[in-house]
């Protein structure tokens, strides 16, 4: 290795990257350029440039990616209806390819020989970062300290000790040691007492939402307006996409909407337990799904539900920059042409439920749906339909009866 080679580190200022930055410099003599992405972490990036430079970085690049995150990533996730294993709304998964994409751009601009990340060798994020690096520039070296035999900080407790020894400011302590990831879409919580699935999440765990026990005793209503599958209005007013998500996080957080506690199957083969807060995302997913019930015909809707499962897997597995994801987006965009309308939602005690849906493209016909029979539906047609539809069942029944 040539002295003073440049490496770009995906830097959050959290525990792992806080210790990895000086470790890379100390162990290999790299000139480390810290790259931080503003994705709506609240005040987490406050003072991050100063911290990175004091920790040994030769430069710190911070990019505000919130609008790109919402418009090019979250809205695609929403239109797909992608949810991993019935609960995880993919908040961390969907952010990693965006961070890695801009990290590669910084590496090119700075003429760096490689890119580095602080994801552990047990988690999904290592795959998400590294697959993105491979897709966008296979020539870049990938530096992953957690998989380096020289890296001995293989527990969060060891990382805390290293940070204290090197006078690196961190928020974590050995008692306050949850692993968290936050952005506009969600915040995740892992580790500590949550590693035992028998432990109930404590009320003080939650950061962007109230525990259910502290929510208002009256419901609150919001109305989301969509145009071709994309949210554009909040309570009848056009709304900036970033502000829309932020506002729904505030509203949903008051009512404990979007809290999920699941044991999920990681890509690397093990099960892990996570608690997620996704208040705005849960509201938007519920609203979008409700609008699709009016505007998608049956076969398209059923097939799209299958596509949503595959789409969620692609995002979870880190395959955002893949031909299949791009191909699925083309199908999904076609399904969204008529997904325009308004959805009113009721938020109360952790629940978000549709309280009214309307669309100019609605396929719901009241005269057809009514119990009252009219000229638009000849009920005698059902006799022949059922006979033909049931013919295979009838034949199988007859054969099975003779075989008894």
Question: Can you tell me about this structure?
Answer:
By secondary structure, the protein is an alpha/beta fold. The protein has three domains: 6-66 and 92-176, HUPs (Rossmann fold), CATH 3.40.50; 186-296 and 338-358, Argininosuccinate synthetase, chain A, domain 2, CATH 3.90.1260.10; 366-403, no CATH class. Helix content is 41%, strand content 19%. The chain has 13 helices and 14 strands. It has helices spanning 15-28, 48-54, 66-80, 91-110, 125-136, 156-165, 241-254, 279-295, 298-316, 323-335, 366-369, 381-389, 391-403, and strands at 6-10, 31-38, 59-64, 114-116, 141-143, 179-182, 187-190, 220-227, 230-234, 237-238, 259-265, 271-277, 341-348, 351-358. The strands form three sheets. The chain has a five-stranded parallel sheet with strand order 3-2-1-4-5, sandwiched between helices. Strands 10-9-8-13-14 form a five-stranded antiparallel sheet. Strand 8 (220-227) and strand 9 (230-234) form a beta hairpin. Helix 9 (298-316) packs antiparallel against helix 10 (323-335). It is elongated and about 85 Å long. The model has no long low-confidence stretch (mean pLDDT 94).
Helicity level? 40-55%
Spatial order of strands in the largest sheet? 3-2-1-4-5
CATH architecture of the largest domain: 3-Layer(aba) Sandwich
Rg calculated over all Cα atoms? 25 Å
Q: Roughly what fraction of the amino acids lie in strands?
A: 15-25%
Low-confidence stretches: none
Largest sheet: 5 strands, parallel
Number of helical segments? 13
**Which whole number gives the mean pLDDT?**
94
- Measured distance between first and last alpha carbons: 78 Å
Shape: elongated
User: Which structural class best describes the helix and strand composition?
Assistant: alpha/beta
Summed up, the domain count is: 3
Which fold name fills CATH's third level, the topology of the largest domain?
Rossmann fold
Task: Give the number of DSSP strands.
Answer: 14
List the helices and strands in order.
EHEHEHHEHEHEEEEEHEEHHHEEHHH
- Would you state the CATH class of the largest domain? Alpha Beta
The CATH homologous superfamily of the largest domain is termed HUPs
